[in-house]
TrEMBL record:
Signal peptide: none annotated. This is Sulfide:quinone oxidoreductase, mitochondrial. GO terms for molecular function: FAD binding; glutathione-dependent sulfide quinone oxidoreductase activity; quinone binding; sulfide:quinone oxidoreductase activity. GO terms for biological process: sulfide oxidation, using sulfide:quinone oxidoreductase. Catalyzes the oxidation of hydrogen sulfide with the help of a quinone, such as ubiquinone-10, giving rise to thiosulfate and ultimately to sulfane (molecular sulfur) atoms. Requires an additional electron acceptor; can use sulfite, sulfide or cyanide (in vitro). It is believed the in vivo electron acceptor is glutathione. It is an enzyme of class 1 (oxidoreductase).
């Protein structure tokens, strides 16, 4: 008996020793409570947190995000074309999050919506009255065999405007191209800013023209989608543009593998995946498939089969949990995932969070507004704006399907300060008011 007791004693003390750090953190585990927990300090999360924390003051809003930097992702298109520097696309997370909100610099590891609780990566438990999920989309580069290696080759010829780690490689690859095939891709599935893959095509093509290399380079856009753009008005304009500029567009054509040492990209027909072909590239701009982050996808109560937070598309409120909302790229609302969409969602989400806290009905409706400044060259841009029905919903009293210098300047010089100073501080709700004001000039348009 005694020897058994001794063994037990020893094993208990051994256990104590081996688990001490864990058990200490458990007993001392901070249990936070807040009125509103915002998971994700990106575009949507930061702007709604700003509105909420200025309404409720200190101590009521927590923002959970592990990132050190907040990127203005719409800038990446311009960085990939050498028009802006990567350094101008980000600020420290600390400097952009609202001062009245508490920032917990950790990941959300588990969601327990039945207990109104989120567990962080360190095991901290955060209890909330309202949860706003704003986690964005994850870039799945590893889903295309060979792509991660191709992107890691120093002075290589593969770039990707979607990641701060790879966006500079687009321009450095572009500068080296003087013959062969410059290939641009668009993956299957839902991605953020679905116009961005072709913006890279147009800017690169313009670069090659300006540097007198265009005649020796084939410019090819291989897209998994069945059309060049979802909104007819802009698709018509873009088809004319690619024809005029001799850009080859292959629809329903998906990048499935890269062979980095042979400079070969393998594509498959979306409708018949066994139908594959290989093509040698002198430059490849690759766009990865995307999905909501894994931690979110794991919480089956919150998400749909693709991992997007299952919300009512008009109210952005969760279908099952009335105290849960989503904003931006990780929501199931079927809009184009852009910063402008998050801007238009932000007042709706804010109003509906207040209404829910006050037990009032939700009155506002998000119409699916998204906009996509389709940069078509070094000084040109088509400003696409549309709603859930893929009908144009334009701000300016001009034909917005035309390439314009003014729209390029708006994208390059006007939007970044608007984003940093107005949107992230909760003062930009998209151009709805401007559209109404401008509509008096639209007579006869
Ligand atoms: C917009 O609201 C927005 O979000 C901040 C963008 O992202 C950076 C845009 O690119 C555009 C075009 C809009 C819409 C704004 C106007 C003035 C039409």
């Amino acid at each position: 008996m005694s020897s058994v007791g001794q063994v037990l004693k020893v094993s208990q003390s051994a256990l104590k020793l081996s688990v001490r750090p864990l058990s200490t953190s458990f007993t001392n585990r901070q249990k936070e409570h807040c009125k509103i927990l915002v998971v994700g300090g990106g575009t949507g999360g930061c702007s709604v947190a700003a509105k909420l924390s200025s309404k409720f003051g200190k101590g009521n809003v927590i923002v959970l995000d592990p990132a050190e930097r907040h990127y203005y992702q719409p800038m990446f298109t311009l960085v990939g074309g050498g028009i802006k520097s990567l350094g101008s696309s980000y600020k420290s997370m600390k400097s952009v999050l609202p001062k009245n909100a508490k920032w917990i610099q950790e990941k959300a590891k588990e969601f327990h919506p039945d207990k109104n609780t989120v567990i962080t990566s360190s095991g901290q438990e955060i209890n909330y009255d309202i949860l706003l999920v704003a986690m964005g989309l994850h870039l799945n580069y590893e889903k295309i065999p060979g792509l991660v290696e191709a992107l890691s080759i120093p002075n290589g010829n593969v770039g990707s405007n979607y990641s701060p780690d790879h966006v500079d490689k687009t321009y450095s690859a572009l500068k080296r191209v003087d013959k062969g095939n410059a290939i641009f891709t668009m993956p299957t599935g839902s991605i953020k800013c679905p116009g961005a893959p072709q913006k890279a095509v147009y800017i690169s093509e313009d670069y090659l023209r300006r540097t007198n290399k265009r005649k020796n380079v084939n410019v090819i856009y291989n897209t998994s989608i069945a059309n060049i753009f979802g909104v007819k008005k802009y698709a018509d304009a873009l088809w004319k543009l690619v024809e005029k500029r001799d850009i080859k567009v292959n629809l329903k054509t998906n990048l499935v593998e890269v062979k980095p040492h042979k400079n070969i990209a393998v594509f498959a027909n979306v409708e018949n995946p066994n139908d594959k072909f290989e093509i040698e590239y002198s430059m490849l701009h690759a766009v990865p498939p995307m999905s909501p982050p894994g931690e979110l996808k794991q919480c089956k109560e919150l998400v749909n089969e693709l991992g997007f937070v299952e919300v009512n598309k008009d109210t952005m409120q969760h279908l099952k949990y009335s105290n849960v909302f989503a904003i931006g790229d990780c929501s199931s609302s079927p809009n184009s995932k852009t910063a402008a969409a998050a801007a238009a969602q932000s007042p709706i989400v804010y109003d509906h969070i207040l209404a829910t806290l006050n037990g009032k009905p939700l009155k506002g409706v998000y119409d699916g507004y998204a906009s996509c400044p389709l940069v078509t060259g070094y000084h040109k841009c088509i400003l696409a704006e549309f709603d859930y029905n893929l009908q144009p919903l334009e701000t300016f009293p001009v034909s917005q399907d035309k390439e314009r210098y003014s729209m390029f300047i708006m994208k390059k010089d006007f939007m970044p300060p608007l984003y940093w100073h107005l949107m992230l501080n909760g003062y930009w709700n998209g151009p709805g008011m401007m559209r109404k004001a401008m509509s008096i000039f639209k007579f006869g348009k």
